[in-house]
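# nightly structure sweep
# worker-07 picked up a monomer target from the shared queue
# config: single-sequence mode, recycle default, output format = structure tokens
# input follows
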Amino acid sequence: MVKKQIRIVSNVKRCGIYLSLLVLFMAICGSNWLGNTTKVSAATFAPNGVFDNSHTMDGNAIDAFLNTFPSSCLSVNNGFSAVAPTGYSPSGGFTYGGLVSGGAVIAAAAAAYDINPQVLLATLQKEQSLVTGGAGCSTLAYSGATGYGCPDGGTIYSY
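# output follows
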């Protein structure tokens, strides 16, 4: 019984020490670290100057980044290439050129739509893991990464 009481007293002292360290940490770091009420909004999440900066990476820099992932679905090291969109007209639709790297396609899309290529890379990764290749590289994954053929109504296309 005495050993059990000593163990209880020891545990209470240990909890007191932990509580004291927590209070000390709060005092050093400021009292607002737990009660931070800053809200994330569209205006504060990614400022327009960052989100819209389509010149943060060129095609070569994007390719170099993609090549750091051994299983990347978009890496030239894994044989990825795509036709380059070269133009569009309402009567003729899109026109295409030769094969280019994933970095070139992403850089061209970033420039055409005034969006940071890092945002496009983050979207491709979060939707289908195409940057790291962690979920495989199926045709459906390429299309689904940006929502093509995956309408909100639930009907998907067969590839």
